[in-house]
Write a structure and sequence with these properties.
Elements lengths: L1 H35 L9 H25 L6 H21 L5 H25 L1 H5 L7 H20 L19 E6 L2 E6 L10 E8 L2 E8 L1 E8 L2 E17 L2 E15 L2 E6 L4 E3 L4 E5 L2 E2 L3 H7 L13 E2 L11 E3 L9 E2 L5
Parallel strand pairs: 1-3, 2-4, 3-5, 4-6, 5-6, 6-7, 7-8, 7-9, 8-10, 9-12, 10-13, 11-14
Helix pairs in contact: 2-3, 2-4, 3-4, 4-6
């Protein structure tokens, strides 16, 4: 009798365990389906609700940037920072809703955010280049008169770009006429941008087709374009606009900039100080760490370019080829025990 009762008890326990296991499996499958499923555009109001909120915020930011362009007085630093914070909030909104949205909506939203940051940078530089971003200089009246036209051309060019797949469409415009280092192999390349030399037509620099080179750019620049560099060490002082990298392999970059965008990079380490979130696309094996460059006068350059405060964005990377809510496998943080120490290039020739 006792054996029968024990047998019945054992059978009940096994059945309960099986039922419990099945329940856990159903819950796990439901969670996995929710994480990986592509929602139907019209199956829920979630997508429409997000798009409505996103559109309203985007229009508000665009209106504020437009006011900055047209107002007679230069914008205050707090105004620019407020707009930047609103763009960051928009990024957070996309991140929080990414698992609910179709992939193309995520891509379109991220592209719109990139365009907003580009437009804010261009507007800021266009309306207040001398007071906020440039050194005092004795430029000619002719140069001063031509500067607004050139800046308007840049803004128009950015607007005409459909920010989509390639980095070229993210703003990597033709830089063949800009000064730079090109077609070098196993050389140490040094350029210093001195105070008073930076004007509307000076300050863009190109690094193209370099192999096994060490590049040291000291001072303040407007933009840096990097194209096809292999096994190079690139040390850059302060960039008041964008750094655009198109093709890099086995390189080390040390950069301070308002905006950094990277396309087709493989096995590179980047030490950054950046105002907005770095963007990668079609890249893998890239690792990030905080900025570690030093030279005489760097603190003044960082303050002049509004980069004197560490934002921590070096660790907040957006991968345009990874639209899931999970961490992208294409980038990682560089372990502290593998990072280089402070690099001082004050006396580097």
């Amino acid at each position: 009798m006792e054996d029968k009762e024990q047998s019945s008890y054992d059978s009940s326990a096994v059945a309960l365990e099986q039922k419990h296991a099945a329940m856990l499996e159903r819950l796990a499958n439901r969670h996995q389906s929710r994480a990986t499923a592509k929602p139907e555009p019209n199956s829920s109001g979630s997508t429409q609700s997000f798009l409505s909120q996103f559109s309203q915020s985007k229009l508000s930011i665009e209106a504020q940037i437009s006011r900055i362009r047209t107002q007679p007085d230069p914008p205050k630093k707090t105004d620019l920072e407020a707009i930047s914070l609103e763009i960051s909030a928009l990024e957070k909104l996309v991140a929080e809703n990414s698992y609910l949205l179709p992939p193309y909506e995520v891509r379109n939203s991220l592209s719109a955010i990139t365009y907003l940051r580009q437009t804010l940078d261009e507007a800021s530089a266009a309306v207040a280049p001398k007071k906020k971003f440039a050194f005092k200089n004795k430029s000619s009246k002719k140069s001063a008169a031509s500067a607004p036209d050139q800046k308007n051309e840049v803004v128009s060019e950015v607007k005409s770009n459909k920010i989509n797949a390639g980095l070229g469409e993210l703003g990597f415009r033709d830089s063949s006429a800009a000064p730079g280092f090109r077609n070098k192999d196993k050389e140490v390349l040094v350029k210093e941008f001195k105070r008073g030399e930076l004007d509307a037509r000076n300050g863009e620099f190109t690094l193209s087709n370099l192999r096994d080179c060490e590049v040291r750019l000291k001072g303040c620049l407007r933009a840096v374009f990097v194209d096809n560099v292999v096994k190079c060490k690139v040390y850059v002082g302060v960039v008041m606009g964008s750094v655009l990298i198109e093709g890099a392999e086995g390189c080390v970059f040390v950069l301070a900039s308002h905006q950094i965008r990277i396309h087709n990079a493989k096995n590179c380490d980047l030490y950054l100080r950046v105002r907005s979130r770095p963007i990668i696309e079609d890249s893998n094996g890239v690792r990030f760490a905080p900025y570690c460059l030093s030279y005489r006068g760097m603190e003044e350059d960082l303050a002049e370019a509004n980069l004197d405060e560490e934002t921590g964005n070096w660790a907040n990377v957006d991968d345009f080829r990874w639209l899931r809510a999970l961490q992208s496998p294409n980038w990682s943080l560089l372990p502290e025990d593998e990072r280089v120490g402070m690099l001082n290039i004050s006396n580097a020739d």
